Amino acid sequence: MSDLEDNSIELRKVFSIKSLFLKLIGITAATVAIKGFMIPNHFLDGGLLGISILLHEIYHIDVWIPLLLLNIPFVFMGYRKIGKNFAVHALVALILLGVALNVIPVPAITKDHFLVAAFGGVFVGLGIGFVIRSGGVIDGLEVIAEYTNKQLGFSTAEIIIAINTTIFLIIAFFLGLDKAMYSIITFFTAVKVSDYIVNGIEKLISLNIISPNSEMVKSLIVNDFNKAITVYKGERGNLPGSYGVKEDCDIIVTVVTRLEMHKIKKAIAEKDPKAFMFVQNIREVGGGILSRKSAR
Q1: Can you list the alpha helix ranges (DSSP code H) found in 200-296?
Q2: Are residues 180 and 33 in the same domain?
């Protein structure tokens, strides 16, 4: 396939109806957050959006200008690290956000500081989440964190927290401690909402069960809940005071949504109150029965 055909396919993905629809929802939500909640009340968020609003507060320039300029280097980093498709998605989203901030009139929605912090964060999170679902970003800090975590030896989350801590200290210096604390509420609300939008209500979780009644648990999960399982051979026992007392066991693993998890855990606990269960969050799955079901 030629480079021209590759570029044509990528552009069709960027400008597909679904991608544009998700971008428009996200950009509208972000515009409501910025113009309806944050700017009228001199509130800030974390990330590049927070820096852009801070520059707007200090120098009275349109917020979309620093937001676009600050994101361009990170779009380039994303192009180098993630790929051209991501960079085009991100650039389109940023340009559309700049247009929306100039064109869409949004009055101040409330003056209540707590409502501004909470619902400003909700709308920022909706904006970030839907734009990520469309393939782009409107805040490049995730890119720089991914780009530098290997060089610095810190995780992406640790780098983002460090950068945002610096931003909140600057906010406290220029706008006061109370605005900085409200901005922290906005930031964490936005993080939770965007995570929910990106991962959805069907966020997948690995449920692990160790039970002396393993055959009953296997049958319950597979036959009653129609879920696939994987069984590892393990060893149980080795408890304090009785080290050396041990026996072979099955470690049963199934991947479920968070809604299914509570029902399955309750059913297992009713059948075997002594069953040991623990859960692990899953960032991504691919292949197998789960993928085939999702494609239907």
Answers
A1: 214-219, 258-271, 288-294
A2: yes
The CATH number of whichever domain residue 268 belongs to comes to 3.30.70.120
**Whether residues 180 and 52 fall in one domain:** yes
pTM over 0.90: no
What is each CA distance from 232 to 151, 229, 253, 265, 284, in whole angstroms?
A: 36, 10, 8, 19, 21
Give exposure, 78-93, as e/b (b: 16+ Cβ within 10 Å). bbeebeebbbbbbbbb
Q: 254-267: string of b/e by CB count within 10 Å (b at 16+)?
A: bbbeeebbeebbee
Q: Residues 47, 144: one domain?
A: yes
In this structure, is the dihedral angle defined by the CA atoms of residues 281, 285, 289 and 294, taken in order, positive or negative?
Answer: positive
What backbone torsions phi and psi does residue 233 show, to the nearest 5 degrees?
-90, 125
Q: pLDDT tens digit string along 234-254? A: 888 777 877 777 888 899 999
Domain boundary among 168, 184, 199: 199
Instruction: Return the closest-CA partner of residue 96 out of 154, 43, 146, 21.
Output: 21
227 and 179 within one domain: no
Residue at which a domain ends, from 160, 179, 199: 199
Give me the domain span that covers residue 134: 3-199
Q: Are 204 and 293 in contact (CB under 8 A)?
A: no
Residues 6+ apart with CB under 8 A from 18: 134
d(CA 72, CA 86): 13
Using one digit for the tens of pLDDT, what is the confidence trace for 84-137? 888 888 888 999 999 999 999 999 999 999 999 999 999 999 998 899 888 888
Which letter does DSSP use for residue 1 in this model? -
Let me know whether 75 and 193 are in one domain: yes
